[in-house]
Give the backbone structure.
Amino acid sequence: MKKNKDTSPVRIIVAGTADTTHCDISVLEKAKDLGIEIARHKGVLMTGVVTGFPLWAAKGAQEAGGTVIGFSPAADEREHIQVYRLPGDYIDVPIYTGFGYMGRDLLMVRSADAIIFGVGRIGTIHEFTVAYEEGKVIGILKNPQHTEDLFLDIAARDLHKERVIIVDEDPHRLVERVIKKAKEARAEITG
């Protein structure tokens, strides 16, 4: 029996800092460009439903006609808004995990084909280590805060695993490269 060709959209997380007060506007514009490019390639953008870098990526994807899935740490919409005080803007499909930020990260990463990182802090580092351990295709957008150096240093310390890590300063090229590798990885699994 012949297998059907996998035509499902590539699911890509865009991760980065929620607090962008230390960033200039160019960082947010690049986040938006990531979202636009993912939508242009008919991918599905996934985020952790926060403000800042992920929100701008979601905005770009929606404005380009794409689909955005948001993973919340909250158990329901009330907790999402009242307890966590998180936005719901630019999310087509909210998923309320009920597992806090750490559990949300694990569910979100396991649901994705790839993850692209922008400027980030400790929460973004957690998402990176989960993606790395799960063997996901990883994209890193070079940024003025040099978050890519930190991620690459973490990866370099693990000598026992080979991972796909793509670093690029151009959001358009980065998305193309990540999608190509994610499709190759998916093809290895599905045969």
User: Anything to note?
Assistant: The longest strand covers residues 67-72. The mean pLDDT is 93. Helices lie at 25-40, 52-63, 77-83, 100-110, 122-133, 147-156, 171-190.
